[in-house]
């Protein structure tokens, strides 16, 4: 069992090395190859000694990776979201945009995604929204790195589903990270939730039960 885990880590390392090589080639074509290119990692702009994805350790060592338990500002648990009103909840059937513009809607929808084991889609979308509000370059780079590790890396348990085109865009954007590094990825996940999860949410017992609870008259005192 231990040898199988080691082999899996080696295969994962090879995948990331190939991705790093493609990024370096792109950077070389742009005439911007870093002097420490031989040591570049999947986050070519970060310190490789802290990069977890290219390091294969022995079975007795612990892989130092983020716990992914941080919560971006503005990202609350569903239970902490504002209570929906009957008018607000009814409007969610009009469009997915109505859901996403409502704090209560995002909370209820996220709770539904949790039951479908796809809550990471909403978490990623919210993290991107918070990233776009940031203006400090150092903070932006740190948030970009954290979002990559939490939602883009194939080693993350919260990896979101993105096609190869978008992943290539991300790799290019990682050369010079900005608050818009993940714009294409965020749009693709938004579309995925809109086309796939949103119809099921509107037809779910969770939404039906919510509407019933909002339509019931309050108990007399």
TrEMBL record:
Protein name, as recorded: Regulator of G-protein signaling 20-like
Superkingdom of origin organism: Eukaryota
Organism: Gouania willdenowi (Blunt-snouted clingfish)
Gene expressing this chain: LOC114454111
UniProt cross-references to Gene3D superfamilies, sorted A to Z: Regulator of G-protein Signalling 4, domain 2 (1.10.167.10)
Residues covered by the RGS domain: 95-211
SUPFAM superfamilies xrefs: Regulator of G-protein signaling, RGS
Alphabetical list of InterPro entries matching this protein: RGS, RGS_sf, RGS_subdomain_2
Annotated SMART domains: RGS (SM00315)
């Amino acid at each position: 069992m231990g040898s199988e885990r080691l082999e899996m880590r080696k295969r994962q390392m090879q995948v990331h090395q190939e991705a790093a090589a493609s990024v370096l080639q792109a950077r070389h074509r742009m005439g911007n190859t870093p002097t420490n290119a031989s040591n570049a990692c999947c986050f070519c702009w970060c310190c490789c000694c802290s990069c977890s994805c290219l390091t294969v350790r022995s079975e007795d060592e612990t892989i130092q990776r983020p716990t992914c338990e941080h919560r971006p500002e503005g990202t609350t648990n569903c239970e902490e979201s504002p209570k929906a009103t009957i008018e607000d909840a009814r409007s969610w059937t009009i469009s997915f945009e109505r859901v996403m513009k409502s704090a209560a809607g995002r909370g209820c929808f996220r709770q539904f995604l949790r039951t479908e084991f796809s809550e990471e889609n909403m978490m990623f979308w919210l993290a991107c929204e918070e990233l776009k509000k940031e203006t400090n370059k150092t903070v932006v780079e740190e948030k970009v790195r954290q979002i990559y590790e939490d939602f883009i890396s194939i080693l993350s348990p919260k990896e979101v589903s993105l096609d190869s085109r978008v992943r290539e865009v991300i790799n290019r954007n990682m050369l010079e990270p900005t608050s818009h590094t993940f714009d294409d990825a965020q749009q693709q996940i938004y579309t995925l939730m809109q086309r796939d999860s949103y119809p099921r949410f509107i037809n779910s017992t969770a939404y039906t039960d919510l509407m019933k609870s909002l339509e019931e008259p309050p108990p007399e005192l």
